[in-house]
Design brief:
Strand order of the largest sheet: 4-5-6-7-8
CATH architecture of the largest domain: 4-Layer Sandwich
Order of helices and strands: EHHEHHHHEEEEEHEHHHEE
Largest sheet: 5 strands, mixed
Radius of gyration: 20 Å
Shape: globular
Helix content: 25-40%
Strand content: 15-25%
Amino acid sequence: YRIDDITLLLLTHAHTDHFGQASRIRDVSGCEVWGHENVSSTVAGFLPSPERIEVERAVLLRYGFNAEMYDKAYDYRAYIADIFRPCELDRELQDNDIVPIVGFDLKVIHTPGHCPEEVVFWQPESRQMFSGDHLLPDVTPVCLLEFPETAESERVHTLSQYYRSADKVLPYEARCIYPSHGDVFQDHRELVKGYKLSTERRLLKISKILEQGGPLTPLEVGQQLFPKAWEDQLYAVISEVMGHLDMLLDEGFVTAQEEGGVVHYELLATPGPGAIFKSATY
């Protein structure tokens, strides 16, 4: 087969390593491009408007960043703007839609968390699942910080959202799962169980950091949690920290207080085993 044989391109999500060549493939093949209706929100993160940049700056300043850190966290955007040409979707998918393919219909399962538009495709007769970046055999969940429409708006707690999505796919009796990165694997339930154990361990580590040095800003937590990586991976680090602080806050294990325009987190109690994740039924 050649590129010009493609008639339909399905997106699991709109990160540039998945969506970046869609326009070129459509130009060559004339194919249609289908993806979730939230694709535009992720594209806006790669090619932001001035208004979006102001919101990002305001949010990250509250988390302990300074202006120089913000610029460093997003210095890749100039490169992305030069090479990334997003395309309009020919069809916007929603949860439970069916993608009609002769003898191989796919069900759309919306699984936000990694990003707002992430979907998994499920083929019921063959029990095959195409998991995108939602389920990866060699990487724990990467739930990127999602910015609100305004600096004062509520922000989606993406790590908590991710685990709701992970529990959503547990009932599927998958025979083979095809991830976007890594090898094909079989047991997605065991994988999710391992994810939850890893998250519990990180929650415990952050709790100990707050117990010993709190109240702390999210950036200060990140500096202690990732002492060798935080300077070079600011966005990834703050995403990881905020995902876990959100979970601790939602479950009542920490409080958040704003002082001088910067948020500080203080530990109330350390979560014990099973305090965050309840047993999933399927």
